[in-house]
Amino acid sequence: MITSDVARAAEFRICAEALIDRPIVTAADDRPLLDRIRRHQPALQSTFGRLTGWRVQAHPEFARLVKTPARAEASHGLAWARGRTDYALLTWVLWYGEHTGGRRFTVSQIAEEIKLRSTAPGDPGLDWASRDQRLAARRVFRGLEELGVLRLQDGSVDEWADENGKRDALYAWGDAAWRLHVGIPASELERLAEGRPAAASPAPPDGTDELRLYRTLLLNPALFRRDDPAAFRLLDAKESLARVIHNLKYLTNWELEVTPEYARVLRPARSDDAVQTPIPVTSGLAHAVLCFCGLLRERQQAGRLVSAGNEAFLIDESRIWQDLDELQKRFGAKWGKTMQQQKVSALADDVVAEMKAWGLMRDTEEPSQYLVLPTAGRLAAHYAGEAVSDDEAEDR
């Protein structure tokens, strides 16, 4: 009986972690995991509902945790999306599905329809002669396949993207296509329908302090005291901190790290599809980010950065360019040929975007100034042959 209970609890945690880390679990990708989630669905719904207010969807062909953040962050974007064009195309594809009643379609058909619909006076719309836009479309189709929204039935979207539309691919709509819902406030929808821009600042956090705490810990890179002092105070008291740790251990195998200014869950590295903390180090861009964080860390320890309070500090865009120019000359050969030869301005844009996505940096009201968060001070990259201090060795 004890062994059975232990095994059931372990399986429950595997299911919970998968629902948190993955946008969706489909039968095509992992039928055994989907079956486990469906078996544990009542317990999963009870626990997620109590701690976060989130809902578990468990259908014969897919399962999904409908996650609503307490605070919107850049890290909540789709991992495969690289810019506005990707999100615009995603919206067009979903519109096309509703417009056609969910009929099967070829890439050339939907591309022609999107081209016609996106063209307006003074705006040429999308141009499929542009390789960049065809590659963006390919990312969207692949991303929707991963989400179970689309099913490739024949052909190849790769050939369409590479051959300037001369080849084709046939798609059908998947089981998850009509069940992916996102909660957008009615007031925001009204603004968009009237042609007004979206609200400049995010809506204030909703729900109880404890609800916001769990939502942020499970969905955001970190919970910062500066963002939600009321929720963070729950970690200051020993009794409530012990309760949070107990609940997280019941739900997952993850540890909780708490510092005076931020808290985050630490996920052990185990697979490519999991959200790793804090940055996957398999790409040259990640190396550049870590090297940059190490440089900032040295300046912070030397008192050469402008404090913004709460262990955060400010940095100007021109300073970022200078620092990355120095780092590129020093370490560029270790980042790969493309990044070694990349213009510093473009490299800076990529590094800033990556740091925003991983909760290390944010925009400020000043266009050329950024807020560097305390989590960045925990990171550094060192290559063989370099001297490493004891503090840096602990945080590599």
- State the share of residues found in helices, binned by percent: 40-55%
Question: What is Rg?
Answer: 23 Å
SS summary, helix count: 15
Q: Strand tally, please?
A: 13
Strand order of the largest sheet: 10-11-13-12
Main beta sheet, described? Answer: 4 strands, antiparallel
Mean of residue pLDDT? 86
Could you say which structural class the secondary elements and strand pairing correspond to?
A: alpha+beta
Uncertain segments are 200-205, 271-277, 392-396
Can you write the helix and strand succession as a string? HEHEEHEHHEHEHHEHHEEHEEHHHEEH
Our count of domains comes out at: 4
Provide an overview of this structure:
This protein is of the alpha+beta class and 396 residues long. It contains 15 helices and 13 strands. The chain folds into 4 domains: 2-66; 76-201, no CATH class; 209-266, no CATH class; 284-395. It has helices spanning 2-21, 27-51, 84-99, 107-118, 131-146, 157-162, 186-193, 209-219, 229-232, 238-251, 284-301, 317-335, 337-341, 344-357, 390-395, and strands at 25-26, 55-58, 62-66, 105-106, 150-155, 169-173, 223-224, 255-258, 262-266, 306-309, 312-316, 361-363, 369-372. The strands form 4 sheets. Strands 10-11-13-12 form a 4-stranded antiparallel beta sheet. The chain starts with a helix and ends with a helix. The relative contact order is 0.09. The model is unreliable at 200-205, 271-277 and 392-396 (pLDDT under 50).
